[in-house]
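Appendix C reproduces, verbatim, an entry submitted by the partner laboratory led by Prof. M.T., so that reviewers can inspect both the input and the predicted structure.
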Amino acid sequence: MARNTEVIRQWTILREIEASSGVTIRRLAEVTNVTTRTIRRDLEALQEAGFPLYDVSDEGPKLWKLNRRPFRTLDGTAFTLSELSALYFSRTLVECLAAPPFGQDLRSAFAKLETALSPRMRRFLDRLPDVIHVKTEPTRKHDEELQRAAIARLLDAILHQHRLDMRYHSLSSRREKRYRIDPYRLVYAQGALYLFAYVPRYQQMRTFAVDRIRHLAPLDETFAPVEDLSNTVFPHSLGIHHGTPEHIELEFASDVAPYVQERTWHPSQALLTRRDGTLVVTMNVCTDGALRSWIRSFGSSVRVKAPMTLVQQIAGDLDRARSRYR
């Protein structure tokens, strides 16, 4: 987690400098809770990475500033028509997927891009949604203002590694619970935002739906990460769950085999096409609700071969579904 901590700290430094008219190294050290020597190394690293940071020294202490137009070199860039078309199309896609509070910033950024277009080019590009359209994923209903406030507080706590007191509505118990959490990461998946957080009381990492958070309060405590999440985003699930992976074997009928074969459902998958056109798929995933829902979506065109516990679960699901039509 050390590398992630460094990146988070350096991002915090950039934001602090950008939000001010000049900030001292001592102030940056206080904000990030590290030594001034570490801050100097961070500033050197950011300058080497190309960020337009500079220092000024008048009569008082040296102040660090950020060039207010760091991307001024783009002013002379001439986009081609195909590049502008691609950007304009991506606007539809990105705005559909953007989680709050980033949606408004994206709309503002694209609005600035539009000012560089001539009226005739804008009229042409406005026709693109009639040619190419993006179907949005189902999204959860939520209180936008409440969620925006929760996300802002979570982002701040994640960046500064501050422990939080949280009230959360649990769907499984259908009641509100209280947690002390160490927030690690926000993840956007399946039309909603989720929080990865370590719960010291249970000594385990848990996933919380942000729209079910009822209240967040920062505690006067910081935390040291106990788990590296640099490459972990529900790695063993077809959905948004955690679990121990198992070896899964499925047999698909020939009528759906081409559809299944042309997609990557999970990085661990292996495919074997038989002479009769049926397809055997193996993968190492957790047997959660997302996997069972995916299997059931193929109806009679799929058969679970292993493990036996999953065979029994799917058979039970089908029996219960059948009983509803009797």
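The chain has a mean pLDDT of 83. Additional entries are available on request from the coordinating office.
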